């Protein structure tokens, strides 16, 4: 097994996000640091880190797909998968606990949430890669900013 990491910039707009909408649109493809990516192949999604400099502390779901969804997944659109899209879902993980490290570190990272030891098995068929989507479960107001999502997988 080989570990691969990726970092995504999640660009947001200056208005309040409603519950159940996409944040930053569809992220990917995540090719796991290999010229052949994750395709085809098996592995384990190990974990993820979400960094929010606006310190919103809002619950977010991280949806993982082994094919890009057919429905439009763009910033500020309601997240509603089609019946076909459901077959592409690898799993759903939740960012819910945030740490405030600004006072201790002085680096301005005021809101960080980590999913540890997710151990979510995946399979990516044919010539597809992994795709990701963040969905709000609260009503954050991010402003025009860049959030960061980092993911780690173990590829078989």
Could you list some keywords that capture this structure?
Jelly Rolls; mainly beta; six-stranded antiparallel beta sheet; 156 residues; 10 strands; 2 helices
Structural class based on helices, strands and sheet pairing: mainly beta
Distance between the termini: 5 Å
How many beta-strand segments?
10
Question: What is the domain tally?
Answer: 1
CATH architecture: Sandwich
Q: Kindly state the percentage of residues in helix.
A: under 10%
Q: What is the typical, i.e. mean, pLDDT? A: 84
Number of helices: 2
Remind me, CATH topology? Jelly Rolls
Low-confidence stretches: none
Largest sheet: 6 strands, antiparallel
Identify the quaternary structure here.
single chain
CATH class: Mainly Beta
Radius of gyration in whole Å, from Cα?
15 Å
- What general form does the structure show? globular
Beta-strand percentage range: over 45%
Instruction: Spell the H/E element sequence.
Output: EEEEHEEHEEEE
Summarize the structure in words:
Helix content is 5%, strand content 46%. With 156 residues, the protein is mainly beta. It has one domain (2-155): Jelly Rolls (Sandwich). The longest helix has 4 residues, at 83-86. The radius of gyration is 15 Å and the shape is globular. The termini are close together.
Quick recap of the structure?
This protein is mainly β and 156 residues long.
Give me the secondary-structure topology.
Blueprint: E1 2-11, E2 22-30, E3 41-51, E4 60-65, H1 83-86, E5 89-95, E6 98-99, H2 102-105, E7 112-115, E8 120-124, E9 130-136, E10 146-155
Antiparallel strand pairs: 1-10, 2-9, 3-7, 3-8, 3-10, 4-5, 4-9, 6-7
């Amino acid at each position: 097994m080989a570990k691969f990491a990726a970092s995504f910039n999640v660009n947001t707009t200056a208005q309040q996000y409603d519950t159940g909408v996409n944040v930053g649109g569809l992220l990917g493809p995540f090719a796991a640091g290999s010229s052949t990516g994750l395709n085809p192949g098996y592995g384990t999604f190990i974990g993820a880190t979400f960094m929010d400099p606006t310190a919103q502390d809002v619950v977010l779901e991280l949806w993982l797909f082994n094919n890009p969804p057919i429905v439009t997944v763009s910033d500020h659109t309601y997240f509603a998968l089609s019946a076909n899209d459901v077959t592409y879902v690898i799993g759903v993980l939740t960012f819910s606990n945030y740490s405030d490290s600004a006072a201790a570190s002085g680096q301005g990272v005021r809101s960080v949430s980590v999913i540890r030891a997710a151990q979510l098995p995946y399979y990516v068929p044919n010539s597809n890669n992994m795709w990701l989507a963040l969905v709000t479960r609260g009503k954050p107001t991010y402003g025009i900013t860049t959030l960061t999502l980092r993911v780690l997988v173990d590829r078989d």
